[in-house]
Batch of 3 targets.
Target 1
Amino acid sequence: MTLQPWLLPAWRVMSEALQSRRVHHALLLAGPKGQGKRVLADAFAAAALCSNRMPDGGACGACRSCLLVAAGSHPDLVRVTFELRDDGKPRSEITVDQLRNLCQRLSLSSQFGGLQIALIDPADAMNASAANALLKTLEEPATDTVIVLIADDPSRLPATIRSRCQRVDLRLPTSQEALEWLRGQGVDADDAALTLEASLGNPGQAAAWIEDGTLALRAECIADLTALSAHKAQASAIAERWAADRPDSRLWFASVLAREEARRLTRGERGTFGLTARAEIPKLAAWFGRANRARSLLSTPLRAELILLDLLRGWPGSERTSRRA
Ligand SMILES: [Zn+2]
């Protein structure tokens, strides 16, 4: 079993519980997107169902259970994730029907006589009625079932759910560990440093951005915000463009860039966006917070373009320029 090095502390906690048969009936895997929560949950599920675990606690990969897990057809492993709507697009929430089906299934005994494992991913996308249905099962857990909740943002789960789970927090690696791991994936040193800065030290996210080309959006954000500071672009045109293509990733990059800009100005350095006045520092810090709030609004019915327009109109550089004008 090869897990990313920063997952090992969490893995040991889960694996030791499994081997000593003291697994909590509900585990909450929490940590930022891209850190490897799903990889960890899959490794745990495979190990829990394996009939011949390896000395490191991992699944053997060869027994009947392991083969069924690999084929996605183990009868005692249930995955609950976004269903597809009639138009073929995934839903944006996990529904009460899905949870009712899950709870019904877990109330039956396991087919192979061992544990039954359920993975709810992402658990923080359960709507209120779905969370309620799950709560009933958590209050009266069946023996030999383990429900694993995977959440980027566990604060979105009701406190009543959180309090009934054993929380497993994934830690971020040190910057040295993260750099070494990215270099080991074939990423060159400059790109590794840049993406780690942009991902706030999350190497799994950094690698995903490099692989799928999302990192290029960061350069577009720099160009757009610089143009906004220089009054060479309209906030409305940028908002329209950002809303049409991966607004979530653009807002992430923009918020981190604002934070970095504030840090550079604090150190007396010239910023990326040509801002120089120390008076911009608190404005950039405030804008960082607003950008993060705007990002969470993207999953609501509010129109992305309006959310972005409101935010971009408040970009510190553009306010300064318009006051001078
Ligand atoms: Zn096995």
Target 2
Amino acid sequence: MLVAKLAGYDEPLQLVDHPVPDPGPGEVRVRVEACGVCGSDLFLQHGGFVGAPLPIVPGHEAAGDVDAVGPEGTGFAVGDQVAIYYIDAPPDSRYALAGHLNIGPGVRRMGVDVDGAFAEYVVRPAHTLIKPSAPVDPVVLAVLTDAVSTPYHALVRIAQLRAGESLLVLGIGGIGSNAVQLGRHLGAKVIAVGRSPKKLELARRLGADVVLSDGPQVAAQIRAETDGVGPDVVLQCGASAHLDELAIEVAGFLGRVVLVATTTESFSARASTFVWKELTVRGSRGFLPEDITDVIELYLAGAITTEHLTTTRRPLVEANEALADLASGRVLRTVLEPATKGH
Ligand SMILES: [Zn+2]
């Protein structure tokens, strides 16, 4: 089978042939119909995940059909549609036991720690697979598992955003754009900050009440839109230290700042800013299987759209072009279609 493999940091992916893997006990082989190309694939490519083993097949935002099941019962049948939850947590981890499958020692991330879905087939533990309650276009199902589930986790589980609150979204990319539409759905006043007019227009279309271009006046403009005090929740979805600092600077009293984007840059802040406003600053790492289940239901109910994420599709052989498009900001997402023949 064809895979796109990262053999060295800052290098292009190599398109190579791998043997089709066989599922062991408790495992399922998934024919990968769709896999999104995400900012964290670029982060991986450029060495951001310290300690990630190389070579590695990236790809963590995937959906497909069950192609084979392992020798013991898995609860899945050949042909079942599945979304892949990319993390396999050690079952005895105290974090996993408390429901935090996304963190703790020993979590194995598909596409970071073990080979991922930039491949025609991937073998996964059956307990990491999710059957949608109704059929979903696989390209849509793939982006629901990360681009939408990540901001959902950040807004619902970490920030606990409530209707009537103000939400500032910094960075209108694959994550931020969905934070905007989810914030709107949850009943918040949504202020979106981005750089390109095209992305601000998208934020407007997805339900932002206010869109602001990032610049020297932006902090004052954000305060003006929030009764002079700053937003209740800030979701920092842009990978830059400047935006980390802006998030903390403009958050309102009792504000919850949630850092979602990752950058290798450091930021600085004064303790007094946290003290004066009793700020909470938290990171939000990925998402949980129940976040995927929830956003699938939101999609099936017509509450959210994925059109802005699924218009650019490429065959797996164009994985490098997809990464280049993402790095340049030309697209929010490209969805690779590894199992689609005839490209
Ligand atoms: Zn991702």
Target 3
Amino acid sequence: MATTVADVMVATLKASGVQRVYGIPGDSLNGFTDALRRDGSITWQHVRHEEAAAFAAAGDAALTGDLAVCAASCGPGNLHLINGLFDANRSGVPVLAIAAHIPAEEIGGEYFQETHPQELFRECSVYCELVSVPAQLPRILQIALRAALQRRGVAVVVVPGEVFLHEAAHDAGPVPVRAVSPVMRPDEESLAAAAQVLNAASRVTILAGAGCAGAHDQLISLAGALQAPVVHAFRGKDLIEHDNPYDVGMTGLIGFSSGYRAMEHCDALVMLGTDFPYRPFYPEGVPVIQVDVRGERIGRRVPVQVPLVGTVKDTVDALLPMITAKADSGHLDRMRAHYRRARARLDKLARDRQNHSPLHPQYVAAAIDKLAAADAVFTADVGTPCIWAARYLRMNGTRRLIGSFNHGSMANALPNAIGAQAARPGRQVIALSGDGGIAMLLGELITLRQQRLPVKVVVFNNGALSFVELEMKAAGIVTYGTDLDNPDFAAMARAAGLFGVQVDKAGDLEDALRAAFAHDGPALVDVQTVRYELSLPPKLSYGEIKGFTLYATRTILSGGGEELVELARTNLRQLEIE
Ligand SMILES: Cc1ncc(C[n+]2csc(CCOP(=O)(O)OP(=O)(O)O)c2C)c(N)n1
Ligand SMILES: [Mg+2]
């Protein structure tokens, strides 16, 4: 058989180190999947919904740092990829999407399943091109791979189905495309300006994010020289929290009060590899120095006095010799004391709630943390599972935490875990799922069994879209449309061939988690958790306090007094000690 365009694509992917492709086949994609089958060295990772393929690729790339690939058939098939691709692109992880397309000669005639993928994918990619003639491949593929790797995002190659099957124009052998890591640091003048600001300040705080990957030593050295508390954004948690005497926790809507205070009380702020989006959490009227490899991202959250374009590692290495080490640790000591108090309160919440039924989610998250492997990979659903993961999962430099932290999509935990587990079959992968989240892509439980992926899923089953209820309360809106009348998820998991167990008594939790974690295959633990758990943001604005009062009044007026009593009962202890 002649070498097809699809064969050359597969050879290029293989030469570039790709080992897996997530997706669902279909008419227009068949030329590509057939080339994969004939080659046999790249695994086809079958999923049940293309959105899961994209989230799996995002999880795979986030864990490995390498390029991950997903593929879907034309029209509805590749439309389903979009939400997961938005997530990958916003998380800055390298993903290639192969979007099969209708026959080229039919484009423009409202043909069966016709869409315009190169327009649809534009917004969720760093590169997106339609292949019109076979001779464009594999060059377009090489450009796409390089774009995904160097610009850290999603590249989409749109290929009409017949192009895959076309005989390759010439076969000069595959060109491998691999990531390269340039040394990138700012110019001397910018560094001197930054040093001047920092040497003049007496209460420096560092806000660090995912851009600190590979720069833990530099972060610690800089914090030491500046005697600076280190606050992190959610995506920095697994990179920054461990082995860090300067750690004062996370800031943001689901963060720690100490993280917020350290930002509030500083007289200079250094942002290291973070694009933390919530402007009310930034300090006002203090000089800000921001380090980012992508210069265009600097200054879009807060006015920045000194922009430093470079990697965190190279920039801090260049900046450190210009810093006069500070002797006064007053600011750092105060913030660390604040952090210790906040941490002790959170730990007490988990400890004191061991015997409640239904269970308190703090206790559940702390138990997962306690029983998980030292090198576990956690994924967390958007919703309150993110809050419990942020507060109770302890990172150690080896554990990882992956989620939809920038795009904020529900239902990410299970498919992210699929990608993580496919990429690292030997590691324990634990998904912290919401009951809303798991139901959204429930079919992916079947993927776990079919693909032999021993992911452990823990469902925080609170019978509600709980995070939305919190948002409604904060805005003074009566709870509405958030009830979830759930099935027995454990029984459903068993029906799908997983180990499944339901827990409604606190005393049974640890045994259930141990059994699930020890099970040689995929497992689901459905934990009945309390619905009205308050997870107050560290900074309650006047609007939020007003909103909460309004909610209470309106709830009583609309006959929901029972809900208020339940809320009070659930949170009494937390409110007392906050
Ligand atoms: C795809 C998507 N739809 C809706 C939302 C809005 N939203 C954010 S959190 C949430 C509730 C999540 O519910 P669940 O998974 O049960 O977690 P819980 O907060 O109850 O723990 C919703 C609806 C979203 N972020 N993403
Ligand atoms: Mg829920």
